[in-house]
Every structure is written in C-alpha cells, then in structure tokens.
Write a structure and sequence with these properties.
Layout: H1 3-16, H2 21-29, H3 37-41, H4 47-67, H5 69-84, H6 90-108, H7 113-126, E1 159-164, E2 181-185, E3 190-194, H8 200-222, E4 225-231, H9 243-249, H10 262-276, E5 316-319, H11 321-326, H12 333-338, H13 353-366, H14 385-394, H15 400-419, E6 436-450, H16 451-460, E7 475-490, E8 493-500, H17 509-518, H18 521-540, H19 546-549, E9 550-557, E10 571-574, H20 578-588
Parallel strand pairs: 1-4, 5-7, 8-9
Antiparallel strand pairs: 2-3, 6-7, 7-8, 9-10
C-alpha cells in the first residue's frame, strides 16, 4: 500500500523492456533515483547520459536474472542511500524498499524473470492485507522509539516511558589497583587529596559528596517519565551500596543502607506501596531455579556438516536479441536498441529517438488498418485521430505544440507504412484482420548450444560475419524470448515484419543493407524467423512445409517509404535459406548439426 511498492513496479516494468525509454524515464523519476524533469529532458540532448542509464538498466536486468531482486535492490539502495537519507522521510522510504526487496526475493523462486516478479507484486498490491504480519511496516529507525542514554545525558529531557534496568547494580567499590584520591569542596574550592585514608575526614567528605551525586542522578532518572517508570530491584551483588538501597533500606538517622535481602525487600516495598496511593505496582520476576537442564537423547557425536557438491549451471539464461547483441561484438547498441540513428548531417528533431519510435510503434499496433487504405492527407482518417494523438501523448508528446506538429508527421509515416507495396504484392492496410498478428510474443527453449557452433552456422550464410563471440560465454542455454512487430499472411505464406524508425542518410537497398549489418538486425530477423518457423510447425502440424509457408523477412524503415516509387525504398526484404533455419532449429533442440 506504499508508494515504494508502486515505484518498484515501475522499475520491474523497465527491466522487462530495456529498450522502452518511457518505462526507463518513469523508473528514474521515482524517489529511488530522484531524477527531476530537467534531468530526464536532458536525455534528448546528451546521448552519453541517456546511454549510460540504458546500459545500467541492461546490467540491472542481468543482475536480477542471475542473482535475484534482492541483489539488485540492495545495490541500488546502497548507492542511493546518502541522497535518500537526506529526505525528511528518507529512512522510511529506504526501509520500505528493503522490505519489499525481501518479499520479491522470496517470490523469485516461483516467478519467471522481471515479468513474473511484476505480476506477483501487482497482485500483492491489489490484495494488500493489513492483517498479514509479513506486510506490516517495519521500524525504519529506533531513534523515535527507544533511546539509550546515560543518566547524565537525560537531565532536562522528558520521555513517555522510562526503563532503569541497572539501579540494583553498580554499587561495587572503586578499583583497588588505582591510587586512592578524594575530590570534594572545602567550602570555597575544589580539593583533591591523594591517599585520603591518611585523613579520615577528607575521605568521609568525598564519600558523602559522591553518594549525593549518585542520588541526584537517580532522582534525574526517576523523574524523566511522563507516563510510567520501570526499574528492577533485588538482592544483587553490592545492591546495598547503590543509591536505590539508600532510599529504600536506610533507617532514619543512619547514613548507610541496611541489608538488601528477601525479607528486607518485602518489608520496604510494602511500606512504599502503602504510601504510594496506587501509583506504584510490584511485579515479581520469574526465576530459573526450577528449570531442568535438557539432556541429549544419545551420546553419539553429531554427524559432520554436509558439504555442498552440486555444481550450479550458470549458462541457463533468458535471452533476447537485445541482450545477445549487447554482448561485445561491435554493435551500435544505441541504434539497435533505440532504433534511432541520427547522422551528424541531419538536423536534430524532437520527433526522433526512442520516444518517437515508441509512439510510431504504438500507433501502428493500435491502428485500424483498413481505415488507412489509400489514405493521404495531413490528418488521420475518420476514427483514427484519437489513436494517433494518444500514441503521442503516451510517450511524452502531450503539449499543444507537440500535437500540432506531431500528428501530421506521424500520420504521414503511418499512411506510407500501411500502404507501401511489399515485394510479394501485399499492402498491410489491405490485409484482413485474420491475416495479421501484432506484437507476436515468443519463448523458445534452448538446449545447451556451443557459441562456436552457433556462430559457425550463422557465418556460413553471411549472418553477423564480423562477430566472434557473445561476451565471455562459451555456450547458451535457457529461453529465447522476444516480440515480433507483425506477422502477416499473404497468398498462404507467412512473413516476419519489423518497423524501424531510424534516420539514415539514404533509404536505397544498399543503404538499408549497410544499416542492417551495422546494427546486426540480421541476427534479429534470423531469430524471429526461427520463432515463426516453430510456431507454424506447431500450428499447422503435418501440413507445414517450410518452402511453401515461410515467406520471408520484411524490415520497413518507415522514414524512407514511398508508396508511389517503383524502387520500393525503405523496404529491406529477403528470404532466409531454409537450410539455415533448419540447422539452427536442430542446434537449439540439442541435435547434431
């Protein structure tokens, strides 16, 4: 029920999609990171800072997958603690983040990655239960609850409740190994006398002054409470030499306290209760005298501690194109992940970068494509204005000036994208709804696969031929996951289509091939085609024929599309060799290539 739970939802949502700039900005705007609007807006002008946070987000995603949410949030909280503790409620926020981290770590055993953790946290928020002990807020600090002070330091202060647990102790004599020295006032000055036993009166005066000082301190402790004071009293060693003994067990006319034994204690407490008028109560402490020591059932020595011999498999992972591409291989990470590439010769536009790319993707996903068939004009067709405007607003283009300039621009890009003629003759706006599937998500199981075998298969077909490895990994194993922007069917063939919003110097076929190679989009569409291959094999069963049904790849660089040009600029199309797809399929199934 706290804001911090919602903030962690934002962070987990960002970890699910490291390339989604809107989610990253939302997470960084939370008090956990505390970036203000000016710092977030500066991302548009300072790419190095923007890329730094994106790289850190990628690192956090890997840390969660490998070590769990507690490791990540502990690292972030330790880093952000100096700033958080400077806030008025910083201790409270930090305690909440750490408590939530423990709950997420417990859930991690049954959740699949950040998406699973986000689902668990959202359900816990929805079903928050104030009667659940695990969900009760922990004390962020003892500073306002319990304060341990010396009696000297408590002078002049007031507390609701006061505990004095040691008034029955501390009556022992001074250390005999130290030279005796008396300190007292002789009426006008402070006097110190070495070896006071040579002068009995000096010692007596010092002893009386010390007792008086200790009584004053006890008075301070007994009068600090506004509601109640607890103190422990009993026949402890040297209890008769404490100030409390002087108060309770001193006979009238005597300087020294009498015996502190059970009978004396009962008598004196009875007198105290009689004079207290109900303001004092006595509670007897339980003793351990009647407890019997537990014996071991047998005399055999305990078994030796077990030694962990299991070897954990560190290669199992949840992989995606983005995660693989970021492993050192010379890829332009910004271009691949943000789908933006702004050459120096092009003027800066606020309608570029990750934000605008996400707006374009959202509009293409939500658009009613038949309405856009043969559409031309500065404004969207009837019924689609709100779709375009909302796609801009959701990604930070909400001002009147943004909408005035952004709607015509986005309208033109959508119109060209949905009406561009593909090499096989299809136009997206002319396809029936049953022949399209937006944002097709896939999860492929990966059997243990040697990196050398994978690269060898790719290089033989000219895919990522400059890459020599994926970081320090020797093999991959686990899940391959991702989302295909669009899968469409035309003439009973199925195609992989991806929208790209990159700024390029040119959009001819050679320019597109260079952009694909530099950003390793070829690795992306190979993985996407493999996913489509397996899906078709599952859906069509024995009727599936790779040569008949697997149509090919269509990568649309939307800024360069022109429906009226016979050159088909902005469309990178190809059909991958069936032998490559079949080899990768068998490789990831664990079969010999």
């Amino acid at each position: 029920q706290t804001e911090e739970a919602e903030h962690l939802c934002w962070l987990l949502a960002a970890l699910m999609a490291p390339g989604d700039d809107q989610r990253l900005r939302a997470a960084l705007a939370a008090p956990l990171f505390g970036l203000d609007a000016a710092a977030l807006a500066a991302f548009e002008l300072h790419e190095s800072q923007h890329r730094l946070w994106q790289d850190r987000l990628q690192h956090w995603q890997q840390r969660v997958q490998r070590f769990g949410p507690m490791a990540l949030l502990g690292e972030i909280c330790a880093e952000q603690a100096p700033r958080l503790l400077g806030l008025p409620d910083g201790e409270r926020r930090l305690s909440n983040y750490l408590q939530l981290a423990e709950e997420l770590q417990c859930a991690d055993a049954h959740a699949l990655g950040p998406a699973g953790l986000l689902g668990v946290l959202e359900r816990r928020i929805e079903d928050a239960d104030s009667a659940n002990d695990a969900e009760l807020l922990r004390l962020e600090s003892d500073a306002d609850r319990v304060r341990i002070l010396t009696l000297h330091m408590s002078k002049g202060l007031e507390f609701e409740l006061v505990y004095l647990p040691f008034v029955a102790t501390g009556g022992a004599e001074r250390n005999a190994s130290m030279p005796a020295m008396a300190r007292f006032h002789d009426g006008s000055r402070r006097v110190a006398v070495l070896y006071p036993e040579k002068s009995g009166s000096d010692y007596q005066r010092e002893a009386a002054e010390e007792r008086a000082e200790r009584l004053r301190l006890l008075y301070v402790g007994l009068t600090r409470a506004r509601l109640a004071t607890w103190f422990a009293w009993g026949a402890a060693n040297h209890a008769e030499k404490t100030p409390m003994a002087w108060l309770l067990h001193r006979e009238p006319g005597q300087d020294k306290a009498g015996a502190v034994d059970a009978a004396s204690i009962a008598q004196r407490l009875g007198v105290l209760l009689a004079h207290a008028g109900g303001a004092v109560s006595v509670q007897s402490a339980s003793t351990a005298a009647g407890l019997r020591r537990l014996e071991f059932a047998g005399s055999a020595p305990p078994a030796p501690a077990a030694v962990a011999r299991r070897v954990l498999d560190r290669d199992w992972w949840v992989y995606s194109f983005s995660q693989l591409a970021r492993e050192d291989g010379g890829i332009d990470v910004q271009a691949a992940e943000d789908e933006t590439e702004s050459p120096p010769a092009l003027a800066y536009s606020r309608f570029s970068g990750t934000r605008f790319g996400n707006s374009l993707h959202a509009a293409l996903e939500m658009a009613s494509m038949p309405r856009w068939l043969d559409h031309a004009g500065p404004l969207p067709p009837t019924g689609e204005f709100d779709v375009v405007a909302e796609a801009l607003r959701e990604h930070g283009y909400g001002s009147a000036a943004d909408l005035e300039e952004g709607i015509p621009l986005l309208t033109a890009l959508i119109s060209e994208t949905l009406n561009a003629r593909m090499p096989e003759g299809a136009r997206l706006a002319a396809l029936a709804d049953a022949d399209r599937r937006n944002e097709m998500e896939f999860h492929l199981a990966l059997a243990p696969t040697r990196i050398a075998d994978l690269l060898s298969a790719l290089h033989r077909h000219g895919i990522v031929d400059q890459r020599q490895g994926f970081g320090l990994r020797q093999r991959i194993e686990g899940l391959l996951t991702g989302r295909i922007d669009l899968v469409y069917r035309f003439d009973n063939r199925f195609f992989v289509l991806d929208y790209k919003s990159n700024y390029l110097r040119g959009y001819g076929h050679e320019d597109l091939a260079l952009a694909v190679r530099d950003s390793e989009y070829d690795l992306q569409y190979v993985l996407y085609t493999l996913a489509l291959h397996r899906w078709l094999r599952f859906k069509l069963g024995q009727d599936y024929d790779i040569a008949q049904h697997l149509g090919g790849v269509r990568y649309l660089f939307c800024r360069g599309l022109d429906r009226l040009s016979d050159e088909a600029p902005g469309i990178h199309s190809l059909r991958l060799p069936h032998a490559l797809i079949d080899e990768l399929d068998r490789l990831f199934e664990g079969e010999a290539a």
